[in-house]
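anyone seen this seq b4? input:
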Amino acid sequence: MTTAARPGHAPVRNTPNRMQPFDTTEEVWFWTMAALIARRDGARIVSGAGLVQRPCEPDDVVKALDRLYRQRRIDLQHARILRIWGERQAAPDPRYASEKGDWRLWREAISRLDWPLRVKGIVAGPLPVAQPAEVLAFPGHRP
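predicted toks r here
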């Protein structure tokens, strides 16, 4: 590939590796938290420098979570549980009584984060499709 610049066009890296979306929303969250922890500890996040190229940056996942918070789809308890367990790089285990409440909040937050990440292509797989709604006759209406 030639790197000669054409007016109005930026050179494109020609790499054999294609973007690889994540398999699950939990996998995305653990990856995001690992990157945020590394950044907090002084590492510099560089796009495309990992072994696998991902279709997002950690900040994209945080923005999706923030959007859910602003839409009141999750609250601060959900975000707190995601942070605590994300730092541990493990999901809460409902078999332990002390983790049951955390597990419920974890599942709610992960399931609500799933849709926006699938729409953006960050998580692989088909979008969940709603079943067609049943049309009910209005009792006071006569055709």
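Residues 11-16 have pLDDT under 50 and may be disordered. The CA atoms of residues 84 and 90 lie 9 Å apart. kinda curious what u guys think
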